[in-house]
Sequence to fold (188 residues):
Amino acid sequence: MILALRRSALYCCATIASFGLIACAGDPLQSGVDPFAPSVFKEGLTAMPLNPPNKASLVPFYVSRDTIFKFAVDTNSILIGADGVTRYIVVLTNPSGGEQAQYEGIRCDSFQWRIYGTFENSAWRENPLSTWKDIQNNIPNRYQASLAKGAFCNLNMQERDIKTIVKELDPASFIGGSKPTNSYGVQY
Fold:
């Protein structure tokens, strides 16, 4: 019985000491780390895709009634980066049927996009002048805004589940382009 009481007292002392150390170590005033300070964005390395867009996994998505282009994203190419960037291949089709494929990235925290390269002459060509640009909401070909709002972002946070992204890209339920409706709520 005395041995059991000594063990209990030892466990209590160890627990109290552990809580004391944890409390001291987490004090931001003593550690010099401000938990409310904004974090600095550090982009990870981006490698160009090895393959062209996969026609079988292209999913079309709605952008706006003002656009004359058609847009589709290759769901097999979507990469959810640990750096907060969602990378993907998008295929733009003009009214005469000409296609252009681009490898891009979207940042949800700052609502920005970047083009990494284009698919030209059966090979990916890196864009050396690429920079982060603000996503525009008020232009006809605002496909980055549609992807960000409809699938890649959850408000200003990156969607971390690929299954959720693919489900949100389903043309029957995609809301990124805010499809217009008539007064009865029927979509055009």
Remarks:
- The helical segments are 2-25, 28-31, 143-152, 162-168.
- The first helix runs from residue 2 to 25.
